[in-house]
């Protein structure tokens, strides 16, 4: 049993899109790692800075206290530090576990910077200020039993410095992403051209493409051109071989046609002649389909209304033209005319009547519509409409002739020279074949 799983949205993108997402993911990972790194370095630097400041204060304060300085508070207090000697240690407020861990880390740094204070009882905590910010508050026991209390005002948080570094990294990362996206799009342009060219292999005349870029891409373009030539040669050789075979088969069929005149009785004679005629028509239809694969044509100025009216004149009672009187475009007359003949013939055979409508001024250029009056096609038949030799059940049930090669031949003729053919059911019943004629630039 095979399980089919839906693709993630990012996986449905092309090579360039996926590459850009990879670059973005790498940049995001690098940005997250940078944030963590800058935060850790910033926090450690601030802790060490406060530890040095407090360690110096405690050493100097302890010495001043030994001298019995009467104005201890004035001597030890500055704009950023406030210190005094107390008989009893102050009770610190309750603090969160994270703030306690930060204060303990600074205390450990103090003892590392000033080993002489390692034996002193030392406790630190942080307090929020009413006007905003935080102060680092602490108390240390002196040799004479008193307590040295101190307050470091405006104890800074580590994030402001980290945020500046992160902002710089983010700007640089965005610039890298933009540069990488531009480079990937430039690299993907040859691949897009290869993709477009690959869609035309076998459906249009081979057209070598010129690829510029890295050596690997250039070599890929050369390999593609070689493959395109080989495929075109194989298709042409196959088509010409089948054409030759169908042509050679007409010789024995011609002999059978002559021999049928000597067959008796008449009903057997008629049966043989009809089957020989059907085989001959099938071979001609097959030859036309094969020839359409490698046919050539030169673009010329064509008056579409005149061309369409010339086609509908083949069925004066069953086909009519609807549209303007003059509209000239540069297109491939022969392939367009042959495709129209087959589509109108198909509409008359299976729909009884055909209307050919010319619509000018569309977004994709002039549009030719061939509409029939038949019952339409089922979804299964519509999905297989372009398959060679395919005929719907309704067509098989009726004695309408045809071998299922009219529409495939028309599609080959239109697509080979850059046009487009679309067939579908229309509202109210019937089938509509829409043709956007092959367009070509006018020389000069």
Care to give the gist of this entry?
It contains 11 helices and 11 strands. The chain is an alpha+beta fold.
* Radius of gyration over all CA atoms, rounded: 45 Å
Class by alpha and beta content: alpha+beta
The pLDDT mean sits at 76
Instruction: Quote the distance from N terminus to C terminus.
Output: 62 Å
| Overall tally of domains | 3
Order of strands across the main sheet: 6-8-9-11-10
Poorly predicted runs are: 1-12, 394-400
Number of helices: 11
Oligomer classification: single chain
- What is the β-strand count? 11
Q: What level of helicity do the residues show?
A: 40-55%
Q: How much strand content do the residues show? A: 5-15%
Any overview of this molecule?
The protein is of the alpha+beta class. Helix content is 54%, strand content 14%. It has three domains: 15-161, no CATH class; 209-294, Signal transduction histidine kinase, dimerisation/phosphotransfer (DHp) domain (Helix Hairpins, Orthogonal Bundle); 297-436, Heat Shock Protein 90, CATH 3.30.565.10. It has eleven helices and eleven strands. A hairpin with a 5-residue loop joins β2 (122-128) and β3. α4 (159-200) packs parallel to α5 (215-260), α6 (266-291) packs parallel to α11 (406-416) and α7 (304-312) crosses α8. The chain is rod-shaped and about 145 Å long.
């Amino acid at each position: 049993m095979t399980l089919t799983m839906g693709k993630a949205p990012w996986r449905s993108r092309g090579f360039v899109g996926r590459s850009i997402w990879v670059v973005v993911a790498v940049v995001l990972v690098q940005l997250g790692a940078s944030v963590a790194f800058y935060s850790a370095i910033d926090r450690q630097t601030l802790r060490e800075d406060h530890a040095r400041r407090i360690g110096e204060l405690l050493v100097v304060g302890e010495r001043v206290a030994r001298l019995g300085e009467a104005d201890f508070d004035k001597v030890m207090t500055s704009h950023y530090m406030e210190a005094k000697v107390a008989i009893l240690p102050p009770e610190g407020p309750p603090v969160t576990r994270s703030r306690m861990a930060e204060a303990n880390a600074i205390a450990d740094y103090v003892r590392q910077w000033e080993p002489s204070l390692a034996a002193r009882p030392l406790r630190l905590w942080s307090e929020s200020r009413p006007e905003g910010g935080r102060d680092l508050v602490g108390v240390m026991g002196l040799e004479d039993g008193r307590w040295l209390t101190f307050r470091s005002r405006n104890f800074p948080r580590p994030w402001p410095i980290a945020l500046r570094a992160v902002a710089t990294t983010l700007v640089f990362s965005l610039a890298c992403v933009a540069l990488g996206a531009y480079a990937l799009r430039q690299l993907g342009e040859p691949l897009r051209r290869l993709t477009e060219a690959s869609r035309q292999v076998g459906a249009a005349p081979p057209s070598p493409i010129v690829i510029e870029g890295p050596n690997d891409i250039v070599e890929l373009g050369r390999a593609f051109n070689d493959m395109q030539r080989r495929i075109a040669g194989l298709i042409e050789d196959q088509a010409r071989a089948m054409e030759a075979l169908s042509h050679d088969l007409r010789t024995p069929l011609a002999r059978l046609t002559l021999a049928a005149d000597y067959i008796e009785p008449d009903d057997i004679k008629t049966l043989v002649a009809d089957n020989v005629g059907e085989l001959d028509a099938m071979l001609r239809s097959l030859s036309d389909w094969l020839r359409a694969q490698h046919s050539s044509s030169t673009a010329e100025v064509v008056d579409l209304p005149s061309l369409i009216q010339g086609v509908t004149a083949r069925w004066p009672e069953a086909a009519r033209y609807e549209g303007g009187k003059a509209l000239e475009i540069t297109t491939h007359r022969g392939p367009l005319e042959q495709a129209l003949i087959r589509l109108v013939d198909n509409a008359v055979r299976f729909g009884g009547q055909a209307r050919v409508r010319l619509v000018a001024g569309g977004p994709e250029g002039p549009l030719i519509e061939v509409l029939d009056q038949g019952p339409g096609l089922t979804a299964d038949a519509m999905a297989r409409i372009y398959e060679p030799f395919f005929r719907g059940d309704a067509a098989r049930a009726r004695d309408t002739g045809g071998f299922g090669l009219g529409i495939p031949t028309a599609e080959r003729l239109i697509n080979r020279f850059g046009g487009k053919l679309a067939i579908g059911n229309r509202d109210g019943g019937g089938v509509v074949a829409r043709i956007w004629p092959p367009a070509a630039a006018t020389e000069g």
